[in-house]
Amino acid sequence: MCGIVGYIGNKEAKKILLDGLCELEYRGYDSAGIAIMQQGDVSLFKAVGKLANLAAVSDGFESKGFALGIGHTRWATHGKPTEANAHPHIGENSFVVHNGIIENYAAIKEELIKEGINFLSQTDTEVIGHLFEKNLKKTNDSLEALRLTQEQLEGAYAVLIITKFENEKIFFMKKGSPPLLIGTSKNNDEIYFASSESVLIGQADGAIFLKEDDYGFVKKDEVKIFNHGEEVAFQVKKIEGTRAGAQKEGYRYFMEKEIYEQSAVLVDTMMGRVSKDRIVLEELAALGDLSQFREIKICACGTSYHAAIAATYMFERNSKIRASAEIASEFRYKEPFLSKDMLFVVISQSGETADTLEALKIAKNAGLKTLAVCNVDNSTIVRESDATILTRAGIEKGVASTKAFATQMLVFWMLSIVLAEKKGSMSNEAIKKEIETILKAKDAVVVEPAMHERLKRLSKRYLHGHGFFFIGRDIFYPLALEGALKLKEITYLHAEGYPAGEMKHGPIALADSELFTIALLPKTLLYDKTKSNIEELSARDSTIVAISPSEFDIADDFIKTKVWDHYMLEFFEMMVVVQILSLEVAVRLGNDVDMPRNLAKSVTVE
Ligand code: M6R
User: Is the distance from the beta carbon of residue 359 to the nearest atom of ligand 1 less than 6 Å?
Assistant: First the structure.
């Protein structure tokens, strides 16, 4: 979703804002803008498209001495990605950046128009500045005006405001899921704002994570936070680390780099958790006795949801515990039936996905124990959960998730074995064998140059057609869903994932030579059954790309994988194959692989 930055201090504000936005650009890239105020004069720059365009239009501008500024990268929710709709939005004298959605903006806008306010954009954001100024006129007190504004705005949002009426302060407010952090400095002479901790790394010394309904203001040496009219105390968390992790390092795209990193991050994910004959997930201690759980419910979105479906196969097969997966946006409004002996698990790469967060809150309110499987420590989902297993994939910048999915899969595989041991559902011998296999997962995801080359060559045949079916059975079904999602996200070609056995119940009607079937055909799991399903499609003239360790003579294209003795190792290798195939098709189509159209990395609106 949108990214927000802010700065107040004596350094060159434009550079700090643009650097911060650059760190956030992968989250939303329809348009961008900054507003910088010095002694009450505001310089405003906006540009449609990538950040480079904003850098170009603001070229030549530099702030000298004390300045305060706010910046934004946009993922459009209300109104097209035009310059007029780009943030910051302006009131008469105030400038606003906003992440989230103002649900009652239409009613507020109507009211303000009746009062003679002229609107310049189609966004929900624009009402914020005007409403703030209206409240300011009424109260003559900017903090009280902010409180009233927050009270009147419904939805979920993180907002920064600068106003010519108070030219030494940045105002802020937060409601619901969109994150907002204040970065403090060692010498207490400058303050940063960001919608993600990654922006503050290497800049600020400490971070304050704003909470639900917080609002207030900062001066360069002062932070004041209020909640429902009362000033509140806050904690400053020390910021560690460097920004070095997020460079392309010679790869063409972050996505490509992240695919190649999968072996290393699987090793990291196992570190200190997997030994020769035991898996220990100390993080689970916070859940109490695991034998209290008779059922597992998993909620997530997108790729994380695919990991959730895959996890249900592992929990039921290995741990003999009932498990179900639900799309978080569906779960939150279905009045779900929840029972106390259920472990509620959420999966999220970013830890900020609005729907997943709301699902988590529903489970918490129902008194369930909650576990997050998440890639970002300190994210909202992590902070809200009883326990967290961090996936340790490192920063994932490509909008199409790859290495995060790999680590999620590994975490659930490990967790299913921990639960199996606890429940006695697998013999010690079987657990030992499973652990030996888990330790080999890192080998299964190594990208072989010959394989990458083959996929690059093959990709030229798959730039058209009226659609792709990714098919697989059992745990290869969620992998089929994931393969189809990867392809559609970055190639814009239509793709669907299906259980191979389901094709004959309808989808096979689409089969012809321009319908490409990407068939996941592992040797170690339901080989003959899946093969028959592929043959049915081949008989209807669908073009078949078979991914399998065993030669398959009816395939139009055959991608030979290695022979493994466990279906999960086949799973991991095939995961890499579908990721690279999508990448290479997207490259040939000339698409922006890391920032595909219409998408954003972190979806903080529902
Ligand atoms: O950060 P999360 O894992 O919660 O994000 C969920 C989805 O938005 C995400 O997986 C999305 O589908 C990706 N673009 C998939 O590549």
Answer: no
